[in-house]
């Protein structure tokens, strides 16, 4: 499954975002036009979603992240690749991550 | 030991309830960054101008500072709880606040405990205008002189009587 995120892209978290780690669950609040809207957009990531998020360091490519997760997690149904691409496409669409290559 | 099984992420989880500590941290961080935060208010201390379940926006303090009638967000001195109440007296170096439906004022609030100001209230998807314009100074004065609660109660009685007549 591919959601339009090529594997050589490198992302890092947007600065327009508040991130909180609450008892192992990562809560993401995007700041849109200077407003953190808890009524409209609030994301929570479970343990494996968090594992993706923590790898968005501005250095690892999408392929690197997929490879690391495949090494770390048991994935008999082969879901990791599609989910990582889907998650990053969603984050990218919502401007919660920035593509390092696209930055000036 | 086998590696943990991969579980898909959860995105945009609707109705996600934030633990109190998480909400507080998010609110403080957003306001410290000079941004605003929009969330559903809980409680009855600001009835009728903020009802339980209204969606309110709290922004950073304006450059002019805080004025009488503004509804501010502040950290209460004795337990550090964050409240949103109206400024009823401005003593320049400190403020006296009171919930519009509260029986007594909160006491003196030093300016270093003030973290933001309520800038917008929405109820059932509509903007609430009453209580947020110049009339907020009159509301503060009525509250200061303990006239607001009886006045609101009286106006409710009048309204209920009018509804019965109709």
Please name the two chains that share the biggest interface, counting residues whose Cβ lies under 8 Å from a Cβ on the partner chain: A-B, 34 and 31 residues
Terminus-to-terminus distance of chain B? 75 Å
- Average residue-wise pLDDT of chain B: 87
- Proportion of beta-strand residues of chain A: 25-35%
Q: What oligomeric arrangement do these chains adopt? A: heterodimer
* Shape summary of chain B: globular
Q: Low-confidence spans of chain B: pLDDT under 50, at least 5 residues?
A: 8-15
Strand content of chain B: 25-35%
Q: How widely separated are the two ends of chain A?
A: 30 Å
Residue share in helix of chain B: 10-25%
What is the radius of gyration of chain B? 19 Å
Alpha-carbon Rg of chain A, integer: 14 Å
How many strands of chain A?
6
Stretches with pLDDT under 50, minimum 5 residues of chain A? none
Query: With helices defined by DSSP (H or I, 4 residues minimum), what is the helix count of chain A?
Result: 3
Query: What pattern of helices and strands is seen along the backbone of chain B?
Result: HEEEEEEEEHH
Please tally the β strands of chain B and state the result: 8
The secondary-structure element order of chain A is EEEEEHHHE
């Amino acid at each position: 499954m591919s959601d339009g995120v090529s594997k050589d892209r490198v992302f890092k978290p947007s600065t327009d975002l508040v991130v909180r780690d609450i008892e192992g669950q990562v809560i993401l609040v995007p700041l849109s036009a200077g407003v953190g809207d808890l009524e409209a957009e609030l994301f929570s990531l479970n343990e494996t979603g968090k594992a993706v998020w923590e790898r968005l360091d501005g250095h690892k490519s999408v392929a690197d992240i997929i490879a690391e997760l495949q090494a770390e997690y048991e994935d008999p149904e082969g879901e990791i690749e599609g989910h990582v691409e889907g998650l990053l496409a969603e984050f990218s669409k919502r401007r919660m991550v920035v593509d390092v290559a696209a930055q000036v | 030991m086998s590696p943990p099984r991969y579980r898909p992420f959860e995105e945009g989880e609707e109705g996600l309830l934030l633990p109190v500590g998480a909400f507080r941290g998010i609110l403080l961080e957003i306001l410290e960054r000079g941004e605003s935060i929009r969330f559903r208010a809980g409680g009855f201390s600001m009835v009728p101008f903020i009802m339980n379940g209204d969606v309110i926006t709290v922004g950073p303090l304006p450059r002019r500072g805080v004025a009488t009638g503004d509804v501010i967000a502040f950290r209460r001195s004795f337990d550090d709880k964050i409240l949103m109440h109206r400024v009823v007296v401005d003593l320049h170096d400190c403020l006296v606040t009171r919930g519009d439906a509260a029986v007594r004022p909160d006491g003196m609030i030093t300016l270093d405990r003030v973290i933001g100001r309520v800038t917008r209230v929405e109820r059932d998807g509509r903007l609430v205008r009453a209580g947020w314009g110049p009339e907020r100074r009159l509301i503060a004065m009525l509250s200061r002189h303990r006239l607001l609660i009886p006045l609101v109660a009286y106006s409710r009685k009048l309204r209920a009587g009018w509804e019965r007549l109709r």
